[in-house]
């Protein structure tokens, strides 16, 4: 599931006051109708668009339960990556070779990158979600957890409806409102949708060329640097200063080389750039150099584990070998991770929400505490660290 783009949080929102979240759902829907009319949409169009909208409790349940992101990197990759998915990716690469060539020449994005998203989001289009998209978007706009993220997407869907590219009764997708083979939100479709097959419409649910080209354009709009790498597996010397690792710190490739970091296979992808050294499960586990394009992945999804897995799978689809898993130290359970996050908060660290997920803020705080306590500062929390805290 792709996390929300913020592109339309300001550009699509009508200029009237926001409808307040929470309260009676029917009253909330009426306020959104009035807002749409005040923004210039025809009243009859607005009535038809909202005519059958309903609150969907299953959407809220899905929003509250995203436990898969608590899995550590190695478990997560084994959960998502199979030989069947690799084989199907190779088949899809051959089947849509012409469109991938267009993407590579137009946007400079390797096919492995898009194939990985296509695989993870919808298993190459085979399951695109069966939630009514309008119900999902209005339900999440009404919910007060993240209304500012979802509310603009309702109006983006209205604009698509006005253009004949959205049906409020039959358009379905993921629980969070994403549509199509690579799961794009209505606002993203308006901004980056491409009619790649030339039929006069952007059909992300039924046209693989439209979906792939639109996804490529969106990545490009997020800042993807054409024909540049995104991730490279490396080996790390035993005596390295681990406090310099982490996605929030960057050094030149020459600096990493001087410290003894070497590519696991082949040569360095780009010596003339700055990059991060990532140890997703500490200094005894896999190691990767993350190039600037890796940061673009976070515009698609904000989960560190998902992003790293998608970037690694793109490499696999481009022919790279399976990473060296090593022998990582034991990690923490979800309950222990929450306990750790609370302990870090008590020491003044900003870890964001206490959710049991090892996100970027928690990793930074862990690394600081490891350094303070004289532990290997690899940002991988262990029971030993939790006990010391």
UniProtKB/TrEMBL annotation:
PANTHER family: LYTIC MUREIN TRANSGLYCOSYLASE, MEMBRANE-BOUND LYTIC MUREIN TRANSGLYCOSYLASE B. One of its GO terms (molecular function) is peptidoglycan lytic transglycosylase activity. Residues 1-19 form the signal peptide. Gene3D superfamilies: 1.10.530.10, Bacterial muramidase (1.10.8.350), PGBD-like superfamily/PGBD (1.10.101.10). The lineage of its organism: Bacteria, Pseudomonadati, Pseudomonadota, Alphaproteobacteria, Rhodobacterales. It comes from the Bacteria. InterPro entries: Lysozyme-like_dom_sf, MltB-like, MltB_2, Peptidoglycan-bd-like, PGBD-like_sf, PGBDSf, SLT_2. GO terms for biological process: peptidoglycan catabolic process. It holds the Pfam family PG_binding_1. Keywords: Signal. Residues 25-314 form the Transglycosylase SLT domain. This is Lytic murein transglycosylase. Residues 333-389 form the Peptidoglycan binding-like domain.
């Amino acid at each position: 599931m792709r996390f929300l783009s913020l592109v339309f949080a300001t550009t699509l929102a009508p200029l009237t006051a926001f409808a307040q979240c929470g309260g009676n759902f029917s009253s909330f829907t009426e306020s959104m109708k009035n807002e749409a009319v005040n923004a210039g949409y025809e009243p009859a169009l607005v009535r038809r668009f909202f005519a059958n909208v309903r609150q969907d409790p299953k959407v809220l349940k899905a929003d509250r339960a995203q436990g898969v992101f608590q899995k550590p990197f190695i478990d997560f990759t084994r959960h998502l990556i199979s030989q069947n998915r690799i084989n199907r990716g190779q088949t899809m690469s051959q089947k849509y070779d012409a469109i991938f060539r267009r993407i590579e020449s137009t946007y400079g994005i390797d096919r492995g990158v898009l194939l990985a998203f296509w695989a993870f989001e919808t298993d190459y289009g085979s399951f695109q979600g069966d939630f009514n998209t309008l119900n999902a978007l209005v339900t999440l706009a009404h919910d007060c957890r993240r209304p500012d993220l979802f509310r603009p997407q309702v109006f983006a869907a209205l604009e698509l409806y006005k253009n004949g590219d959205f049906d409020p009764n039959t358009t379905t997708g993921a629980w969070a409102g994403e549509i199509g083979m690579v799961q794009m939100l209505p606002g993203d479709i308006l901004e980056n949708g491409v009619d790649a097959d030339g039929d006069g419409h952007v059909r992300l649910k039924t046209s693989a060329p439209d979906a792939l080209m639109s996804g490529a354009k969106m990545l490009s709009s997020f800042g993807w640097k054409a024909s540049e790498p995104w991730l490279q597996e490396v080996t790390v010397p035993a005596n390295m200063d681990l406090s310099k690792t982490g996605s929030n710190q960057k050094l030149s490739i020459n600096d990493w080389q001087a410290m003894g970091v070497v590519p696991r296979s082949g040569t360095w992808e780009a010596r003339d750039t700055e990059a991060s050294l990532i140890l997703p499960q500490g200094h005894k586990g896999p190691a990767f150099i993350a190039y600037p394009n890796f940061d673009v992945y976070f515009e698609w999804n904000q989960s560190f584990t998902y992003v790293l897995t998608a970037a690694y799978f793109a490499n696999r689809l481009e022919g790279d070998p399976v990473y060296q898993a090593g022998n990582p130290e034991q990690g923490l359970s979800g309950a222990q991770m929450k306990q750790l996050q609370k302990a870090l908060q008590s020491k003044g660290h900003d870890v964001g929400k206490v959710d049991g997920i090892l996100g970027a803020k928690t990793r930074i705080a862990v690394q600081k505490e490891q350094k303070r306590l004289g532990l290997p500062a690899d940002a991988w929390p262990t029971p030993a660290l939790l006990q010391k805290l």
